[in-house]
## 1
Amino acid sequence: MQRTDVAIIGAGQAGLAMSACLTARCIDHVVLERGRVAQRWRAGSWDSLRLLTPNWLSRLPGWSYGGADPHGFMRRHEFIAYLSDYADAFGAPVVTGAEVRRVTQPGAHYCIETERVTLACAAVVVATGQCETPFIPAMARQLSGSIHQLPAAAYRCPDALPAGGVLVVGASASGLQIADEIHRSGRRVVLAAGRHARLPRRYRGHDIMWWLDRLGILDDRPSVADPGDAHRQPSLQLIGRRDRTLDLAVLRDAGVQVVGRACAADRTIMRFAGDLAETTASAERKLARMLARIDHAIVQRGLVADAAEPRAPLWLDQPATRIDLAAAGIATVIWATGYRRQYPWLAVPVLDARGDIVHDGGVTPAPGLYVLGLRWLRRRSSSFIDGTGRDAHELAGHVAQFVARRRIKAA
């Protein structure tokens, strides 16, 4: 059995950010990765995917974008290279092909069993991120076998789908972008939209992320009564293009049929809730509050900005509540219904009734066990690249103190 001070599970942006912070503190550690560095970006992203945040906001501890297009948006393969170069730059101790089978705490130390190695360590950082396992609603099992189904994580491009129309279920960032791409390829697309949140790509002369970063909004701390509910909030309706805003109205005007939340299925029949007006109104109120907050800060700080653009509230016609997919020529259903975090290998009592890790800013009730990379972990931007890096820097302090105390006890 090998020994180290800290084991980090996952070599995506969260795991590498923590590794960089521990390396800077000279703390012995290892990063366990089931595949290769940035494995989820390699295996769970469609071909044309771009980051939703501009390149200048891809900041990680000791690392930042140095290319020629800071206001652009990295493509999938570019970001994979970005993370690989980051790992190489500080010599991240990544063990690839080491899928974690079990984590236990038989005594004072944690024991981690993987395909390649068994480790004993004082502390563990779970950095598997927000997007662990695609969530497919139970209604999917009620659809006919003649309907091709796949999660958004398995979608690659329109040409890889069977001929025919497509129903995309879910209108957060992934669902919206996939629906847009498939529609642009010339297919009929129906988009089932439930709860969602939207922002314009640009506002008053700057990318919306410029405002959120400049005004400190990305550093907002969780304020909901149930912190677990915060990281289940839908991702923003954005697209990684500086010249486009993408929302339900844009898709509707382009010819995508927008309906309400998918609520039931029976062979080839899909039923949708009549809640589209309610969910779009809720998103509109949140958007109005955010833009008003930016407007107020501009005035209070005397910032130079363009005039606020005229903006009509989003309005959608009463949508269909029942569609016969076969009759409508829809051959594929893509479930862009989010992810669930699953930790079947974590045999430490830190999971709540929903299966999420209980934590306070990434610190779990189990001494020496931490989690990183979740939405709203410590701030609004915790699931963004930059926010993950900031969280890692702060959490590394807790890890270092814990390891130091363990060393003192062992001396």
Note: The two ends are 21 Å apart (CA to CA).
## 2
Amino acid sequence: MTGIVLSASVRQNLLSLQSTASLLAKTQNNLATGNKVNSALDNPTNFFTAQSLNNRAGDISNLLDSIGNGVQVLQAANTGLTSLQGLVDSAKSIANQVLQSPVGYSTKSNVNSAALTGATASNLLNSSATGETGSVVNKDTTGTTVPITGTTFLSGTATAASNDLASAITTTDTLVVNGTTFTFTSGTSSTGTSIGIGDTVNNLLSAINTLAGVTASLTNGAITVNGSTAGLTLSGSALAKLGLTSLGDGLAGQTLSIAATGGGTATKITFGLGSGQVASLNDLNAQLAANNLQATFDSATGKINLTTTNDAASSNVGAVTTTGTSDIFHGLSVTAAVADPNSQAQRAALVGQYNNVLAQINTTSQDSSFNGVNLLNGDTLKLVFNETGKSTLSITGVTFNSAGLGLSTLVSGADFLDNSSANKALTSLATASSTLRSEASSLGSNLSIVQIRQDFNKNLINVLQTGSSNLTLADTNEEAANSQALSTRQSIAVSALALANQSQASVLQLLR
């Protein structure tokens, strides 16, 4: 072959034809593969950069399956929370049925006082029965009981006559305390049982206190007269003028202590007109309320009845004690509560329904799983969002069975006996409902984060793959045009080669 000599034109045409054929082959390969960079030989920088982008996109794409599973785990937990909320609402309905049921006791625990003749619901202090204690009560011109506003008897020139005890007294008046008569004189001098109407209340009290077995005092605007012997009486013309209608053993000064009843607060009551003391039925009920007790007054018998409220109907009135042996509640026995069989049977059935709901709460929380992960049964979900493992989210699960929600199984015959038990269950259910709502909010927030990251990763994969394509993909329009141009060039080169060969053929003809 070394002895073959080609002309310059032939050699040039052959080289051009070879170059065109190589370019045409490459162009057709680009069109066939769709890539302009098919190997590192085509463009090392673009090839390896594109490969890196595609690898990252593939790694992130693999994470999408795990993220998708995480979304379903959160959805399963959220579905479980919705069901649990419905079950808690069902339990609330059952507890409310207890409140709407008849009281579970035909007779509630109670205690009756001794009779108070002359007392009324609006003024328990005004008893006219004889006994050992008397309370001096000041009334205005309308008959309304008002506190004593001063410590000095004033003359008729007082500016506040309705509240001025002395303004009504004259020197002809008398006051009889347990048989001893006190007279009133003009001036400010007081001797023995003779009291000057211009003198002080303390002098009158001092005079009364000289009597055997009788003591008098002024406390919070009310004069209280106590006697250590039975039959203490108050009378005399000054009595009506001073508005003194509490004769004998009214409640003033008596105390009443009741131990805690049905989980209530122990109560200590002092009867009288002073601050914090009890003078009416409304006052009494206000102080009894915290101890699950209520009082009624029977105007026919003059007795005060203390009984448990519906909330504590299953409980007995706490131990009743007094300081005085003659106090109206002293030594009285407490009547125990008597259960109503029919009502209690109905309440026992409600206990069973309530416990069934709690059992469903337990099974629902256990079933709220996806792919082995249960965020309502204490599991933890960890999600990885990028290929390096540095972008993660850990979601700590909760235990939302009945115990985890603070709900206890009830005992028939011990629970739902009265409204107090039902209210206690409702309080626990309200707390459980609030806990469920809080967790639902937390799960919703986490689900939003996971879905946002899921969408971000999908978009990021598209960005990476687009970037890789920009580095390696061929422009089909450009490559098609190149192919057409190269085909034309190849045809021209073939024709040129043919022409070059024709000149050599002409020389051959001469040699023949």
Note: The mean pLDDT is 79.
